[in-house]
């Protein structure tokens, strides 16, 4: 958007607050669903109806596995004698089936949570401070750039294509390994090239699941995290101004910014089904070095998608807190100096300026103590306990899977 268009928008809406409100109103759940194209069309994400999404999941992710079971029955590979792995014995395939369905079913909730978080960003911007420091254009520019980013550009489309390419490459790698499964896995598999129907059916199914569903879902969720990170990191970099408003006495115990951690927790819950992959690997292969490294890597990834976006909010909140404490300290020092000057008087009683200074110092001291307790992270202990309970659940499932692998 050029300067002429910016001036037109400012003239049309009248103030930076209204310009930002207009941009944020546009970023509703329907609009954010475009990030997940074409999944938004295939699974009816824009309908915001769990029933509509579930019906599409059954159609596109539920029926194909049933067809694969039918093909496997026809080829006699439901159960393969000896060390071979038939379809009904393939725990990895069972994990794929449930993981992809759960990922899609959780998406509408995540998108709705993010739309709610974005709609409340305007309330976290202190426009009094923005107007006082004459930084209206910088703030408006941040939300315009976020709007453009969601609408899509060459970079976002390129990253989505890269994600899809990685998914397709994984399918190709799997297809190569199953050409001669005995050489790779040391046993026959139901989707090996020796069973052409299973081989082709599995590749088509995985191409849809890995090449489209999994890759686009992960891309979209990471993109949503990046929007939060980008907006608040840019707000925190506007000169010496602390434009992010932090409420010291907010009942959410997060400075009035709990909607941000709510959105990030929605992403964490949305990606949790992917933990079933590592749990399945533990069941199949037991506790091995690659599996342990993969599990630790996955936990690190989940921590990153939660804490990195919130770190930008943390920096903005810290900047705001230091600004407020600095202002109170400066006013306190002025009043305190006036009080000290009055103490130098030869009168035994405090004069009128000194008496006037005492209440001011008292209330400024109280204000400083209250402001000093302002949170600098947009979450409280309850939110952290929810997050780490998700991590603990994955660890518990991994341990149970390891025990079952020993027993069976």
How many individual helices?
A: 16
Q: Major sheet, described briefly?
A: none
Structural class: mainly alpha
- Strand coverage percent: under 5%
What oligomeric arrangement do these chains adopt? Answer: single chain
Amino-to-carboxy terminus distance: 63 Å
Strand tally is 0
Q: What's the overall geometry? A: elongated
- Note poorly predicted spans: none
Summarize model confidence as the mean pLDDT.
84
List the domain count as a whole number: 1
The level of helicity is over 70%
What's the order of the H and E elements?
A: HHHHHHHHHHHHHHHH
* Cα-based radius of gyration, to the nearest Å: 28 Å
What does this structure look like?
The structure is a single chain. The protein has 408 residues and is mainly alpha-helical. The protein has one domain (3-407). Helices cover 75% and strands 0% of the residues. α6 (91-119) runs antiparallel to α12 and α9 runs antiparallel to α11 (196-235). It is elongated. The relative contact order is 0.10.
């Amino acid at each position: 958007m050029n300067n002429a268009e910016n001036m037109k928008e400012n003239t049309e809406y009248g103030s930076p607050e209204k310009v930002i409100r207009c941009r944020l109103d546009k970023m509703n759940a329907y609009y954010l669903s475009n990030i997940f194209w074409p999944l938004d069309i295939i699974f009816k994400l824009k309908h915001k109806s769990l029933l509509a999404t579930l019906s599409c999941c059954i159609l596109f992710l539920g029926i194909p596995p049933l067809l694969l079971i039918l093909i496997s029955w026809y080829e006699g590979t439901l159960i393969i004698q000896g060390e071979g792995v038939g379809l009904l014995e393939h725990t990895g395939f069972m994990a794929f089936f449930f993981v992809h369905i759960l990922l899609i079913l959780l998406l509408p909730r995540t998108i709705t949570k993010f739309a709610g978080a974005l709609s409340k960003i305007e309330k976290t911007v202190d426009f009094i401070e923005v107007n006082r420091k004459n930084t209206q254009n910088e703030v408006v520019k941040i939300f315009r750039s976020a709007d453009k980013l969601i609408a899509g550009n060459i970079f976002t489309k390129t990253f989505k294509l890269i994600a899809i390419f990685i998914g397709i490459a994984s399918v190709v790698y799997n297809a190569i390994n199953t050409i001669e499964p005995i050489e790779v896995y040391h046993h026959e598999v139901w989707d090996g090239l020796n069973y052409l129907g299973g081989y082709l059916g599995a590749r088509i199914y995985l191409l849809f699941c890995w090449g489209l569903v999994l890759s686009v879902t992960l891309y979209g969720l990471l993109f949503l995290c990046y929007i939060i990170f980008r907006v608040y990191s840019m707000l925190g970099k506007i000169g010496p101004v602390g434009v992010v408003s932090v409420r010291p006495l907010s009942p959410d115990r997060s400075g009035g910014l709990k909607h941000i951690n709510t959105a990030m927790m929605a992403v964490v819950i949305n990606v949790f089904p992917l933990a079933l992959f590592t749990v399945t690997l533990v069941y199949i292969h037991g506790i091995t070095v690659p599996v342990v490294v993969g599990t630790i890597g996955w936990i690190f990834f989940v921590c990153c998608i939660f804490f990195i976006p919130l770190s930008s909010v943390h920096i903005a909140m810290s900047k705001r807190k230091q600004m407020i404490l600095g202002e109170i300290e400066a006013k306190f020092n002025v009043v305190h100096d006036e009080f000290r000057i009055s103490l130098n008087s030869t009168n035994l009683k405090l004069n009128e300026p000194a008496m006037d200074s005492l209440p001011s110092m008292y209330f400024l001291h109280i204000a400083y103590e209250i402001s000093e307790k302002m949170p600098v992270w947009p979450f409280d202990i309850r939110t952290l306990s929810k997050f780490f309970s998700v991590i603990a659940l994955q660890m518990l499932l991994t341990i149970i899977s390891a025990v079952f692998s020993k027993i069976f």
